[in-house]
Amino acid sequence: MRRSRVARGAALIAGAALVLSACGGGGGGGGQQGGVLADCEQNPNTCNSAEPGALRDGGEVAYALEKNVPNWNANSAEGNVFETGLVLQGVLPKAFITQPDLTVAMNENLLVSAEQTNSNPQTLVYEIQADAVWSDGTPITAQDFIYNWKVQNGRDCPDCAAAVTSGYEQIQSIEPSNNGKTFTVTMARPYTDWQGMWSGDSVIYPAHIAAQQGDLNTPEGLAAAFEYFGKTVPNYSAGPFQIEEFQNNVAIIETPNPRWYGEGPNLDRLIFRVITEASQEPTALANNEVQVIYPQPQVDLVQQVQNIPGVSSFIGMGLTWEHFDFNLQNPFLAQEPLRDAMFTAIDRQAIIDATVGQFTDKAEPLNNHNFMPEQEGYTDVVSETGHGSGNVEAAKQILTDAGYRIQDGRLLTPDGRPVPPLRIGYTAGNQIRQDECELFAQQVAPLGITVNVTPTDDLGGTLAEGDYDIMVFAWVSSPFPFSGAQQLWTTGSESNFGSYSNPEVDRLIAAAASTTDVEQARQQINQASRIMAEDSYVLPLYQ
């Protein structure tokens, strides 16, 4: 199985799970929920929003971007990162849009309708808006959806390293009609998260530009187009903005797309300014070099932002979740009792209190691997295992029952071998992650286990290469939990970095992703989550 350097989205995120939003121009002194962001807790879909007609025309907004865009193909494994997705959000379309409250809504600018018309076989009918066009005037048609299906289904283009194949691989056929403005999708197998196709972390690239790179009826032509979209700054658009200029490692400048078929935009320019040091973002905000920042919060950074006059800030929950992961390729960690004992000794509440709890009371221990508390289906599958409880005596008993023993302060395996020092990794420069790792090491030390804290400058590469024993990081999940579970937990998945494998989990997840009964799918995913918790592979920390 080919390993990709970056994961799909559940996109990999290097920072903490909580996110601080801050913008200039707010009222007051910028408390945690001040000014224009004050209503975001209760009304996430409408806060800091206005109808297009109520906004002034003109002006520009600069948004801090913490990393350069590494690849322009958001549908590729390499390009499926937060930065690419953010910059392309107003440039390339999606069929469905994720709302701030974690629900999804059809993109009414692009589509007239998208609905399931039959369940056996599952049949989906999409109608594209008649006036939806690319920025060169070419109509958006079924051919655009077909191209993006072919490069993501894992069959038509074996050399296309797609970030996700779920759903696309289950499509049997796509039949255009109405001059390509309507198309019918017939599924070979049902797909629960069908609204996630051409949506979620995927965007739609133009088939007519893809065809300029090669014959789209051949694997070679598809691969050439897929590679082209990754290497080339888009000079095309089907959204309200188009990329005017890319200054490598400096800024991406976007201007209104003159062929945009929806309302707005009102701005003259939208600028994504690359600021790789998060500690510099409050200064840039205070100096009006940027008007919006979206960093992973650190204690000092939060305090700085809250002290900037005229700035509104908000710390919010979302689909991002922090977790500790074991690498099961380590022969010692391949033994479940050792993992079970370590997770039992970990005190999640103490870790939260010492890190993110210093600036928000929203963070609580997360008890599911696939659903967030705000999502229907969330069930606590962790507490019953004792994991995250900080019960050292129970952890020691687990080891004793499995034949381990502590001798001269060092843990010995049932066959008498010393458990060697283990490495726990985190993203270099992230103080919260460093603190989480150091607390992990302290909490398992009474078990006779030494854990050394080792930062990495390349989280995605370190995970993909398996060069770790334990890692703390966050997944940016999606509102499509069934396909997300396939990506993260099934045997051989490129994003299953720690090589976890359980045939029953594979079966349950596959069944959940291949049904039209959503409630049954939720039950199956939670059954899989409960088994995963018992297998002691990943310990969720907080959302």
Question: Describe it for me?
Answer:
The chain is α+β, with helices and mostly antiparallel strands and 543 residues long. 24% of the residues lie in helices and 21% in strands. It has 14 helices and 21 strands. Strands 1, 15, 18, 19, 20 and 21 form a six-stranded mixed β-sheet that branches. A four-stranded mixed β-sheet has the order 3-12-11-10, with no helix packed on it. A four-stranded antiparallel β-sheet has the order 6-7-9-8, covered by helices on one side. It is globular and about 75 Å long.
Treating each run of at least 4 consecutive H or I residues as one helix, how many helices? Answer: 14
CATH architecture of the domain at 320-542: Roll
The Rg value, from CA coordinates, equals 24 Å
The stretches of 5 or more residues where confidence is low (pLDDT under 50) are: 1-18, 26-33
CATH homology superfamily name of the domain at 320-542? Dipeptide-binding Protein, Domain 3
Q: What's the average pLDDT?
A: 91
**Structural class of the secondary elements?**
alpha+beta
- CATH overall fold name of the domain at 320-542: Dipeptide-binding Protein, domain 3
Number of strands: 21
The biggest beta sheet, please? Answer: 6 strands, mixed
Q: What is the beta-strand fraction?
A: 15-25%
Shape: globular
